[in-house]
Amino acid sequence: MESYYLFSNGRLARKDNVVRMEATDGRYKDLKIELIRDLYLFGEVDTNTKCLNYLAQKEVPVHFFNYYGFYTGSFYPKESNVSGTLLVKQVASVIDKKRQLRLAQQFVAGATANILRNLRYYKQRGRDIETSIDSIKSLEKLIPRANAVSELMGIEGDIHKYYYGCWEEILNHKYEFTTRVRRPPDNIVNTLISFVNTMVYTACLSQIYVTQLNPTVSFLHVPSERRFSLSLDISEIFKPLISDRLIFSLLNKQIITATDFENGSNGLFLKRTGQTKIITEFDKYLKTTVRHRDLKRSVSYRHLIRLECYKLIKDLMGEKAYEPFVIWW
Known about the structure:
The protein is of the alpha/beta class. The chain folds into two domains: about 1-75, CATH 3.100.10.20; about 85-315, Up-down Bundle (Four Helix Bundle (Hemerythrin (Met), subunit A)), CATH 1.20.120.920. Helix content is about 50%, strand content about 15%. The strands form four sheets. Strands 1-5-7-8 form a four-stranded mixed sheet, covered by helices on one side. A hairpin with a 2-residue loop joins strand 9 and strand 10. Helix 3 (about 95-125) runs parallel beside helix 8 and helix 8 runs antiparallel to helix 10 (about 300-315).
C-alpha cells in the first residue's frame, strides 16, 4: 500500500470503486482505493460525505494542507481495531502522574539520543559543534531527574536551543537561522522545519491509526480536544532521523533553494514546486530500509514508527517497559 500526495485545486469524489481527483481544468486522476494507505491533499479541494464515507469504509485517513503547505487537519476514520482494555490502561497511565512522567521521560530521552547521534555524525566531519554537544549531554542527565512533565518540557526546550544553534555549522550554505520561529516561519530553514515536521506528525498519526492506540491520549504533550497529541509524542523521537536529516540533505545538496520560496504578507512560504520536491524526497525517505537488530530483517523508516506504537502498547498492557527507538547506524 502507498501514501498518495495530491497537489491540485478541484474536487475529490467517489466514482464506483475508485476515488477520483478532478482538477478545475477538467483533468482527473483515479486512485484505486485498495492501494491507498493514506491520502495527503494540498490545495483547495472540495469533497462530499459520499466520498468521505467511502474513505472511512476503506479505513483511509486523509490529511489536508492549504495552498501554502500548512497543515489544516486530518479526516480520521472511525477505528476498526479497537480495544476497550487498552484505552482504559492508556487513560489510566496519564492519570497516574508517576507513570505518565516515566513515559514522557522516555520520549525526551529517545529524541535527545537521536539528536546527539546526528551531531556526532557532523562532528566527525569537522563541524565545530563540540561545545553544544557537551551542553546537550549535561541536559540529558537531567531528564531522569525531572519531577514533572512541565519541568521535562523545559529541559527539552533547552536541548533544542543548543541543537538548532548547531545548524549553521551543519548546513553547507549560509542561512539566517539562529532561533526556531513557528507561527509564521520567518526564513528558509524555519519554513522547512515547520513543513517537514508536519509531514512526520501526519505519518505518525497514520501509523497510530492501524494500531489500537487512541491518538488523543498522550504523555509528554498535553492531551487536547483539538489535536492528536500522541502523534506529537511519537514524532519527537523520529524528527531527528526523518525530518532533520531530510532537511540537511535538501539544503546541502541544493535540492531546495531560495527559488522554491515566496514572501507573503505574514512570513515565508513554500511554493508548489518546493512542496512537490520535498514530498517526493520525504516519501522516498520513509521507504528507506535498515536491518533491524531485533527482528533480523529489513524494515522501512515508516514501519519503525509502527513498531514504536506496538512497543508503547506492550508497556501500557504491562508486558514490557517501553524503551524509545534510538538510531543505531
